[in-house]
Amino acid sequence: MRRLVRVEWTGAYLDGRMPVRCPAAIRLLRQGLEITLADGRVLSWRYRELRQSQGFYAGEEVRLERGEPLPEALLVAEPGFLVSLHRVGREAAAHFHDPRRRSRRLILTALAGLGAALAAAGTYFWLIPAAADSAAGRVPVAWEERLGRAAVEQLAPPGTRCTDPEVARAVDTIMERLSRSIPENPYVFRVAVVNDRRVNALAAPGGHILIFRGLLERAKSPEELAGVLAHEIQHVIRRDVTRAILRHVSAGLLLAALTGDPTGAMSYGLEAAHALVSLEYSRQTEMGADVGGLALLRAARIDPAGVLSFFEGMLAAEQKTPQPPLYLSSHPSTLERLVRLRAMVRETPVAPPLPLLPEVEWRTLRLRCGGPPAGQKLPR
Fold first, then answer.
1. Contact yes or no for 65/51 (Cβ under 8 A)
2. Distances in Å between the alpha carbon of 198 and those of 194, 233, 326, 329?
3. Residue 117: its pLDDT value, please?
4. How much is the pLDDT for 92?
5. pLDDT at 55
6. Rounded to whole angstroms, what are the CA distances from 124 to 99, 118, 131?
7. What is the pLDDT of residue 375?
8. Same domain for 139 and 92
9. Is residue 116 part of a domain?
10. Which of 30, 12, 29 minimizes the C-alpha distance to 21?
11. Residue 244 region, left (φ>0) first, then alpha (ψ -120 to 50), else beta?
12. Which of 18, 76, 200, 205 could form an SS bridge with 212, CB 3.0 to 4.6 Å?
């Protein structure tokens, strides 16, 4: 008996310029997708033009992307979409992930043998990253928030933070403007300014972000700081930071994530803090955060020229000293990123930006956390 294949699906379309989901009706064809948008437009995407960036694990939303540098995207949350895609598209869709290839027995065997496998160097470089990626996509936001809070308390206890109320008010205003522009945002973002001269910023799981005093003083405008914050926000909502920490910590925290143990996140705060200060994101991860951060700035109607001027300043600092700012050690390839960001700003014009903190004398405010840096050093 011939099995019927479902060809009609529903999903959401993103145009790559604004982070706004548009309802879409999707029809599977032999060589591509026919996408009908709510406003009546019909898009035709050939499979060979598409790449898959999400949906490799059970329960994860499928994301198909098309084009560069600001890709259009199609999101499908309904289970079974990829299976039908393979049955209809066959060879043309062979490069997409096929859930039928998952072997439940192999996964259970791998998890059961995790303790023994950790002793083998070869397994260390394969199984842990795979398990970390799976866990990062599954853990609840509340679990991430606990882990991030524990890490931040180790990295920047209250005595090391800038408590100036005007600085806090300005940073909170920028974050509120950015947060309001994130569709379906599950995170409550919390930003702390660390009284440390080093030029750096860190995103922690669950919506926690640390801005170092040196970076605040280096930012020549609130738009420059907003560009950094938009980038770090992307590392949170894309779960880049959660995934990276789980790849670099002990099996205990990884197992706590896999099992959803709510107490495990808090008990590994120091270990997560050590991982945070040594993280280096991949080129692909940084590109994704750059693209998403720029889209977020535009959605919030914040001038994207700020992020360009910030990286221009970073590039100048990198060229002048043998020891570049700490921010560049975890955010590499400054010149390449600046060239790419300039191209994206030039190629995607949007509505005129609105003023950010027009009533604030930024030149004075960014120096209000001055004074000797906090005595407590970050864990190494």
1. yes
2. 9, 20, 7, 12
3. 41
4. 92
5. 84
6. 25, 6, 11
7. 42
8. no
9. no
10. 12
11. alpha
12. 200
In a domain, 273, yes or no: yes
- Contact 150/265 with Cβ under 8 angstroms? yes
144 falls within a domain: yes
Does 47 share its domain with 147? Answer: no
Give the pLDDT score at 126. 45
Q: Which pair of tokens denotes residue 377?
A: 């050093």
User: Same domain for 244 and 326?
Assistant: yes
User: Scanning the structure block, which residue is given the tokens 């109607």?
Assistant: 301
Encoded amino acid at 97, one letter: H
Bridge partners (DSSP) of residue 46 are: 32
Tokens 């999400």, residue? 54
Nearest to 146 by CA among 104, 195, 188, 194: 188
Which pLDDT does position 376 carry in this prediction? 44
Q: Domain span at residue 167?
A: 135-365
Q: Which backbone phi and psi does 11 adopt, to 5 degrees?
A: -165, -155
Enclosing H/E stretch for 289: helix 283-299
- DSSP E strand stretches across the chain: 8-14, 22-28, 32-37, 42-46, 50-54, 62-66, 72-76, 190-194, 201-204, 208-212
Residue 161 DSSP SS3: strand
Q: Is residue 130 part of a domain?
A: no
**Same domain (yes/no): 97, 139:** no
pLDDT of residue 62: 92
- Regions of the chain short of the pLDDT cut 50: 105-106, 109-110, 112, 115-126, 257-259, 372-376, 378-380
- Ramachandran area for residue 35 (φ above 0: left; ψ -120 to 50: alpha; else beta): beta
Angstrom distance (rounded) from CA 206 to CA 143: 8
Q: Alpha-carbon distance 380 to 375, whole Å?
A: 15
Phi first, then psi, for residue 310 (nearest 5°) are -65, -50
Classify 203 as helix, strand or coil: strand
Same domain, 70 and 172: no
Q: Where are the alpha helices (DSSP H) in 60-126?
A: 81-89, 104-112, 114-117, 121-124
